[in-house]
Structure formats: C-alpha cells, structure tokens
C-alpha cells in the first residue's frame, strides 16, 4: 500500500531517478551531521560559555549594589571591568535599548539570549548585532546599565562555518557527480531514441557506446533491427514474386477466355477477376510501408486530397473536422493507402464515409466513420488479422474481398509506431476506425 502511494510521486525518467538516488543521501547526511553538530557541540559549548559570562556579570552587579551614585559605581567596578574585559556605562532609560539587527545566519543567538535571561533576572535586553561585541542592558537601582562584552566569550566563533563548508563541498561534489551521471546516461538516451524512432518506422544512425551493459544492449538492438528489416524485405520479395509470377498465367487465361463464347466464358472470367483482385491485395499487403521513408507532412492537406479523390471515384466521402494544425512524421503513400482502405470499406459496407483529423502536441489521430453495420466488439480483434472475413454480418451488402483491408491499415499504423482502434460510431452508428500515431 505504501509503495503504491509512493510510486505516484516518484519521477518517471531515468535521469530524475538517478538524481534522486544521488541527492537524497547527501541531503540526509547533511541534516544528520548538522543536527548532531548543533545539539552535541554548539549547544553544550554555548551553554558553558554563557554560564561563565553570567557569573562575571553577576559579580559586577553585586559590586554595583554597594555603591550609592553612578560615579561610585564606575569607580568601584573599574578593576573588575578591566580584569573581565568588560565595558560599562549608564544609558537613558527613557529610550529603547539599541539591540541592532542580528546576522541572518547567526542561528545560535537565540540560545545565547535564552541562557542570559535565565541567569540574569534583571536583564532587560540583549543586543547581538553583526559586529564582534554584545551588549547587555540591565535594570539597577541607579538606572539602566549597559555592559559590553566580547561576543566570542558567549558562543564559539563563526559556528556556521562547518555547515557552510559542508553545504559548499556537497554542492560542488554533487555538481561533478551530475555531470558524470549525465555522460553515463547519454548512451541509454541515444538507445531509447533509436528504438523509439524504429518503432515509428524511421531508421536513425546509432552506434553503441557507454558502459559494457549499455553497449551489449545497443548491439542487441542493432541485430534485432537488422533481423526485422530482413524479414520485412523477405516478406515483401516473396509476396511480390508470387504475385508477379501468377500474373503471366492469368494473362494467358484471360486471352484464352476471350476466344470462347460469352455464355461459356462469363463464369470463368469472374473467377479470373477474383484471382486478379486477390493478387492486387497481396501486392498491397506485401508493399506495406515500403514506399519511402517518413517525412514531415501536413496531415490535413493529405486527407483533403484523399477525400477529393474518393469523391471523384463516386464515393460519398467528406472531411468533417480538422482539430489542430502542424506537421507530422508520416509515410505519405502508406498513409494514403491506409485511409483509402478505410474509406473503401466504409462505402462498401455502408453508404457514406466521414473523415476527421485531430492533432495534439503528442499524437495524430485520423478517424473514418461509416453508417454500415459495424463490427461487433468480440470480432474486432479478429477483424484486423490478415485474410479474416467477417461473413455474413459485415458482408451483407455488396462487400467482397480477401480480408486484407484492415490488416494493411493495422500494419501501416504499427509501422508508424501507432495503432489501429476499432469502435462504434456515435454519430453514424456504423464502424469508427482510428489511426493513432505519435508526432
């Protein structure tokens, strides 16, 4: 329970967590040493020194009580004041004692004043200014007496020096540690950026560096990236090769069917056309996202072109809203194919398609909605798998295909480091398909 509560307040980045691990022990050490020093050393020494000064002042007060005039007081106390290194004079009681302003770092002054007041009942005020002298104002029968004493006799000299020294060197060493830690974390940051870029479909230059463990992770990432690229290339070459090789016998079949009577060739032509559609779908799936690298484009401009092309093709499509502006890193041809597939599905299983765009500082969302029958919740995971056909619910109209439309869209979204999400359109009642990628 406590760890779960603490987790929400912990920093998320590795640099911040490492900084916390580095700074927290230093701060705790400073606090422990500082408190121990104040309590065990400064307080005890200050109490002893203040008690000694209190006895000296009490001796002077006893001498004053035997005198009848101020002149007699000064004459009688002169030997004691010289021996004790004190200065005495009477001041006007009608004016407030001049206590002055304490030094902001003189944290031992309150304890000095507390001990003096406890040992001297006649003490009116204590002045502990920024100089080297302390002034005590005492009430006597002959008026207000001011005693001046060396401040070094009341408390240790510069009690703040130890704490200041500790804080100074702690800041210096912590700063040096931060610089070293930053250099150690930089290879991890570079590895993270390279992995994130590859997840979004971009290949950036990366060379392993840093500690042995980080170098090993970097080398493993490069090997994994190379294997994935080889597998994608092999998949593309295999499907492209198969599709290309099958086009030749299909062409011969079409040529042979053209020589047959129409009534005999019609069913066979339908089979050939279906095979042609299957090959075209294979080619689209094999190409995937292989058409050029990602580049900074304006998604709003791309969607307007796609919707306009769909209208010219006779589809009822409309770009209903655009929220936000700016550019995003996308593969234009791949993203065009994804949106065109969604629009094609929308008008195939419904009557209209509505496209919308939402740009935030972190994400780009392209939404396509239709008024068709939609896809049930339990079948949405199956719908994005290759060669998956949701008969008969999704194909109750003129729908036909080989089950690669949504699979291609999902593949393109993943290649951009994003995801394809399927839901129900609240506005049209049919399918709502969202392509969400990072910016």
TrEMBL record:
Question: HAMP domain: from which residue to which, for each copy?
Answer: 182-233
Q: Does the keyword Magnesium apply?
A: no
State its location(s).
Cell inner membrane
Where in this chain does the record put each Histidine kinase domain?
241-439
EC id = 2.7.13.3
The EC class name is transferase
User: Topology relative to the membrane, per the entry?
Assistant: Multi-pass membrane protein
Q: Keywords in UniProt for this one?
A: ATP-binding, Cell inner membrane, Cell membrane, Kinase, Membrane, Nucleotide-binding, Phosphoprotein, Transferase, Transmembrane, Transmembrane helix, Two-component regulatory system
Q: Which GO MF terms does the UniProt record name?
A: ATP binding; phosphorelay sensor kinase activity
**Transmembrane among keywords:** yes
- Name the GO cellular-component terms: plasma membrane
Which parts of the chain span the membrane according to its record?
162-181
- What protein am I looking at? histidine kinase
Q: Tell me the name of the encoding gene.
A: envZ_1
């Amino acid at each position: 329970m406590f760890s779960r509560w603490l987790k929400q307040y912990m920093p998320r980045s590795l640099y911040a967590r490492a900084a916390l691990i580095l700074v927290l022990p230093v701060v705790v050490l400073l606090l422990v040493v500082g408190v121990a020093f104040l309590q065990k050393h400064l307080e005890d020494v200050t109490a002893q020194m203040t008690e000694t000064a209190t006895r000296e002042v009490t001796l002077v007060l006893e001498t004053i009580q035997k005198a009848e005039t101020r002149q007699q007081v000064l004459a009688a106390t002169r030997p004691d004041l010289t021996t004790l290194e004190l200065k005495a004079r009477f001041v006007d009681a009608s004016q407030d004692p001049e206590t002055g302003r304490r030094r902001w770092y003189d944290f031992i002054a309150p304890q000095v004043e507390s001990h003096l007041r406890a040992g001297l009942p006649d003490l009116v005020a204590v002045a502990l200014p920024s100089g080297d002298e302390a002034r005590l104002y005492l009430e006597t029968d002959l008026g207000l007496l001011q005693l001046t004493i060396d401040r070094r006799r009341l408390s240790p000299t510069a009690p703040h020096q130890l704490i200041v020294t500790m804080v100074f060197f702690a800041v210096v060493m912590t700063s040096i540690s931060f610089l070293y830690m930053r250099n150690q974390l930089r290879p991890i940051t570079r590895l993270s950026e390279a992995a994130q870029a590859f997840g979004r479909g971009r290949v950036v230059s990366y060379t392993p560096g840093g500690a042995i463990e980080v170098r090993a992770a970097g080398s493993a990432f490069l090997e994994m990236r190379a294997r994935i690229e080889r597998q994608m290339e092999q998949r593309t070459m295999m499907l492209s090769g198969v599709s290309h090789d099958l086009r030749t016998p299909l062409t011969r079949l079409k040529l042979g069917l053209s020589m047959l009577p129409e009534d005999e060739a019609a069913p066979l032509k339908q089979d050939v056309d279906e095979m042609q559609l299957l090959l075209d779908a294979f080619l689209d799936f094999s190409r995937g996202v292989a058409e050029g690298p990602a580049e900074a484009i304006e998604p709003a401009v791309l969607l307007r072109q796609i919707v306009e092309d769909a209208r010219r093709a006779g589809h009822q499509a409309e770009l209903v809203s655009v929220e936000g502006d700016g550019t995003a890193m996308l593969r234009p041809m791949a993203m065009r194919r994804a949106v065109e597939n969604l629009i094609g599905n929308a008008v195939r299983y419904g009557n209209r398609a509505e496209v919308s765009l939402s740009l935030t500082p972190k994400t780009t969302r392209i939404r396509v909605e239709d008024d068709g029958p939609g896809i049930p919740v339990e079948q949405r995971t199956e719908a994005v798998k290759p060669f998956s056909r949701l008969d008969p619910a999704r194909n109750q109209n003129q729908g036909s295909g080989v089950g690669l439309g949504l699979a291609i869209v999902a593949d393109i979204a993943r290649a951009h480091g994003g995801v394809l999400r399927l839901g129900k359109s609240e506005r049209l009642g049919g399918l709502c398909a969202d392509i969400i990628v990072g910016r």
